[in-house]
Each structure stands twice: as structure tokens, then as C-alpha cells.
Design goal:
- The complex is a heterodimer of chains A (128) and B (290).
- Chain A contains 4 helices and 9 strands; from the N terminus they run βββαβββββααβα.
- Chain B has 8 helices and 10 strands.
- Chain B has a 7-stranded mixed beta sheet with strand order 1-2-6-10-9-8-7, sandwiched between helices.
- In chain B, helix 2 crosses helix 7 and helix 3 packs antiparallel against helix 5.
- Chain B is globular and about 45 Å long.
- The chains are: A alpha+beta (128), B alpha+beta (290).
- At the A-B interface, helix 1, strand 4, strand 6 and strand 7 of A face strand 9 of B.
- Chain A: The glycine cleavage system is composed of four proteins: P, T, L and H.
């Protein structure tokens, strides 16, 4: 399982990368994409949408199964990976790179403190 | 010969409390689609136990969100409505499925597990089990899971008889990623549509008409699907009755539940609030909101 050390992780299997200016890039983890199987559709919010931490912000479809995605932080969506519309398989192939989903400008930067580092996420996944 | 499914039988029995909902033709309105969300929410909140719901929808093409996201697809939905094939949007994945007289739906609702209990494959197998038992015990028909390329909403967990698809299946996991443990409450909905006596050619033509208008393809081949009345004689009402009774018997045997009920008044009321989610226009409005 690939878990980059510089990222933070939510208990709903999202990764969060700090990008400066209160902005974070978000996607789902390598573990999650592997468990879900071949992803054929990604539904994401629009730029300008406000997200609330722990609320649904989109969904992914794999094996004819739709899964809800939960926001790891609150804030405004400032960028959306539109390439996933035509290439949802990027989430499987490069979950931390071209498979990123959204960039959010955080309204509560303290949300980051509740996220896990790679070791803790690894431990959570192993426990489950 | 039906595939051995002891694990799935045990999974049914491991859930102590079950509810069986059986809705007759009176529930065949758009509200019956929204009921999928309201029943699921009731299960997620713990207000209702794990539930199996037998129901029939009105004549319609039922699509996933993926299939209604483009303007062309919205246009296709409007055209199909004029052709008396209204389009409804479901929360689960996959591609378009025909509903209406001559089809029967089975929905399985499970509360989201706090521990690693089921995965996606197991939930599909749990869903298929009562249908396969009903086909075997009521009609003497052996069925199995398998892909049927060229059939509607194809996948590994079609229920297949003699190489032809008779049941399509799909799932949605609310409360976090499918197959993974989530701390939050949620529910798993797996649903199936059995083709009993719908006119196969007409249904396939409608599905292809939608896709041709939406994306310029005709993905469904008539000969890949079959209806139950290809192998079973009897009038439509008789077939409806035998399928429903056989399914209730199979479900009772698997779950140990006795009673059969209808959705609660609270679930019906909540369904009215969810109704807009089932309409293609809802997704168009969402796309235009920005």
C-alpha cells in the first residue's frame, strides 16, 4: 500500500495535501481505490461550492456500486479535476497524482489537526 | 445446479432482526423510487432493521447518475418521456434498466457495518440468493451469477438462466467508501430487477433509444436477455403472484422473519422529500446552479 508520508489522511480514506494559502488538494487513498476496484465514474462538486467537514461531497462508482465521499475539511472548492470526467481510471492508476479530485480553500484550518499521519492511517487500515 | 452459497446463508442468519416489505401495484408510482432512499435512511438511523423490499415501479427507464450527467442525456430523457418511457435516476451504479409491468424489484438494505462484515461481492451474492432460490423452488429453474456481454446493465452479478440475463443488479453504499469500514452511520442498498413478462423487444428498443439519443450508441442486444415467461406458462397476474409468493417464502426461509409489512408512514413522508432526486431535471438544475 502506497502511503506518502507528506500527506494527511481521513478515516474515510481520503488523502489531504497542504498546498499553502490555506488550500489543500484532496483525493482517495491507494488502499481505497484498490478496495473499490475499477472506477468508472467520479461525481464531484463544482468550483465555488462550499463543503462542510464530514459531509458528502461527491461519489465514485465501481463494480456498479456507488460510494459516497466525505469532506475531510470545510471550505470552498477552488479547483476540480475535470480530467476525471473522461478518465476516471486515473483514480486507480495514480491516486495521489492525476487521480486527485478537488482543491479546497479551508475555512477552518484546524480541521487538519483531526486528520491522521501515514503511520496512524496504516494502523487504522490494518486494524480493520 | 445452483452455486453453493453457505456463506451468504450464514450472513442472512447472523443478522437477527429483519423486516420484509412487500408492496403491491398500488406503489407503482415515482414515489416507489424515492422510497429506496427513505427506507435506507430509516435503516441507517436504526429506526428499521435490515430490510428486504419487494416492489414494482411504473413503466420507466431507470438510470444511474453517470448516465444522466450530460445535456444530451437530459434531452434524451425528455424525448423518452414523450415516448411514454419516462426516465428516473437511481442512486446506485450501472447502466439503464427497464421497469414497469412485467418486472419485479428486490431491494436489500443493510445497516452500514462498524466492523468489516460484508464486501461488495458478498452483498451482491446475498441479494441474488433469494431470487435464485425462488427461481429454483417455484419454477424449477436453475440460475447462476455471470456476465452477459451486450445485456442491459451488465456485470458479474447478473442472475442468468441458460445463458440469458433475467436479473440486473447494482449497489450504493451511503456513509463512506463501499466495502470499507466506516465509523459513521449509513446503509448499503443492493437492488435487483427481475424480468418476468415485460415485452423484451420493446424494452430493449427503449433502452437503446435512450442511449442513441444520449450518446449515439445502441449497447443492448435483445438476444442476451430473457423474461421469466420464456420458460414458464401462465397469465401475467398469475406469474406476478407466483413470483411474489415464491420470493416471500425464500426470504422468510433465509431471514427467519415472519411478517410482511409496508413502508411506514414516516418513510412514505420522507420519500416525498427525496422524490426530486429521482428526476433527471434535478441533476440538470444542479449542473446549472453554479
Amino acid at each position: 500500500m502506497n502511503l506518502p508520508k507528506e500527506l494527511r489522511y481521513s478515516d474515510e480514506h481520503e488523502w489531504v495535501k497542504e498546498e499553502g494559502d490555506n488550500k489543500v488538494r484532496i483525493g482517495i487513498t491507494d488502499f481505497a481505490q484498490d478496495e473499490l476496484g475499477d472506477i468508472v465514474f467520479v461525481e464531484l462538486p463544482e468550483e465555488g461550492d462550499e463543503l462542510e467537514v464530514d459531509s458528502p461531497f461527491g461519489s465514485v462508482e465501481s463494480v456498479k456500486t456507488v460510494s459516497e465521499l466525505y469532506a475531510p475539511v470545510s471550505g470552498k472548492v477552488v479547483e476540480v479535476n475535470e480530467d476525471l470526467e473522461d478518465s476516471p481510471e486515473n483514480v486507480n492508476e495514480a491516486p495521489y497524482d492525476s487521480g486527485w479530485m478537488i482543491v479546497v480553500e479551508m475555512s477552518q484550518p484546524s480541521d487538519l489537526e483531526k486528520l491522521m499521519d501515514a503511520d496512524k492511517y496504516q494502523a487504522m487500515v490494518s486494524e480493520d | 445446479m445452483m452455486q453453493p452459497m453457505e456463506r451468504e446463508v450464514n450472513q442472512y442468519r447472523a443478522i437477527g432482526d429483519w423486516r420484509i416489505l412487500c408492496e403491491g401495484d398500488e406503489s407503482s408510482s415515482p414515489l416507489s423510487y424515492a422510497m429506496e432512499e427513505s427506507v435506507g435512511e430509516a435503516v441507517a438511523r436504526g429506526e428499521a432493521p435490515a430490510t428486504l423490499r419487494i416492489w414494482r415501479g411504473p413503466r420507466a427507464i431507470v438510470v444511474s447518475k453517470k448516465d444522466i450527467r450530460t445535456e444530451q442525456a437530459q434531452h434524451a430523457a425528455a424525448m423518452m418521456r414523450q415516448a411514454d418511457w419516462p426516465v428516473f435516476v437511481r442512486q446506485s451504479g450501472g447502466t439503464a434498466v427497464p421497469h414497469g409491468p412485467g418486472t419485479l424489484n428486490l431491494s436489500l438494505f443493510l445497516p452500514r457495518p462498524q466492523k468489516d462484515v460484508w464486501n461488495i461481492d458478498e452483498v451482491y451474492r446475498m441479494l441474488g440468493l433469494p431470487l435464485m432460490r425462488m427461481l429454483r423452488d417455484t419454477f424449477g429453474l436453475d440460475s447462476y451469477f455471470g456476465e452477459v456481454p451486450g445485456s442491459f446493465c451488465d456485470g458479474r452479478y447478473n442472475v442468468v438462466i441458460r445463458g440469458k440475463k433475467v436479473v440486473g443488479t447494482s449497489q450504493v453504499w451511503k456513509g463512506g467508501p463501499a466495502g470499507l469500514v466506516s465509523k459513521r452511520p449509513g446503509y448499503i442498498l443492493a437492488h435487483a430487477t427481475l424480468l418476468t413478462y415485460i415485452r423484451r423487444e420493446e424494452a430493449v428498443s427503449a433502452l437503446n433509444a435512450f442511449y442513441e439519443l444520449a450518446e449515439g450508441t445502441k449497447p443492448v442486444y435483445t438476444e442476451t436477455v430473457a423474461t421469466l415467461n420464456s420458460w414458464v406458462e401462465g397469465s401475467a397476474p398469475s406469474l406476478d403472484r407466483r413470483v411474489t409468493e415464491g420470493l416471500v417464502t425464500a426470504i422468510r426461509d433465509l431471514t427467519g422473519a415472519d411478517g410482511v409489512s409496508r413502508p411506514s408512514e414516516r418513510e412514505r413522508e420522507a420519500a416525498r422529500a427525496f422524490l426530486e432526486h429521482c428526476r433527471p431535471e434535478y441533476y440538470l438544475e444542479r449542473a446549472q446552479r453554479v
